[in-house]
């Protein structure tokens, strides 16, 4: 907490007025990041809702924008301190689950609209979260020269190569 106080240019006493310990501070930061990220994802994907591929691109880009905007906060959240909490209460896993469920619902809605099987939507939504998170982590760690928009396009291209066969009207008619 001394480092947090020093970084915030305040005393530990002031920090402890707001947070019981490092775990409490970490959980508060995670909660704030989750709120911001989910809001940005929902907004970006809603704005592109008429075009499934653009919805994908917008969602990927929104996640990467968060990383780019504040890489230190992203690192702090994704590489947590040792928490005095049960392993099943991991805020990063919870965040990934919330995002995966949201994306699964977007996919499911599109599949349902086309009269297609919605069964795989949950798996695909969570798979997309894993792909984008892993690529975002690698980008932050080793490829800072790669522009965010280029990475978002690359990830969207990879995901769209599979999704387009199942979530586009032409795929539905050619599968019959």
TrEMBL record:
Pfam families reported in the protein's UniProt record: TetR_C_32, TetR_N
GO MF term list: DNA-binding transcription factor activity; transcription cis-regulatory region binding
HTH tetR-type domain span: 1-37
InterPro entries linked to this entry: Homeodomain-like_sf, HTH-type_TetR-like_transc_reg, HTH_TetR, Tet_transcr_reg_TetR-rel_C_sf, TetR_C_32
Top-level taxon: Bacteria
SUPFAM superfamilies: Homeodomain-like, Tetracyclin repressor-like, C-terminal domain
PANTHER family, per the entry: HTH-TYPE TRANSCRIPTIONAL REGULATOR RUTR, TRANSCRIPTIONAL REGULATORY PROTEIN (PROBABLY ASNC-FAMILY)-RELATED
Protein name: TetR family transcriptional regulator
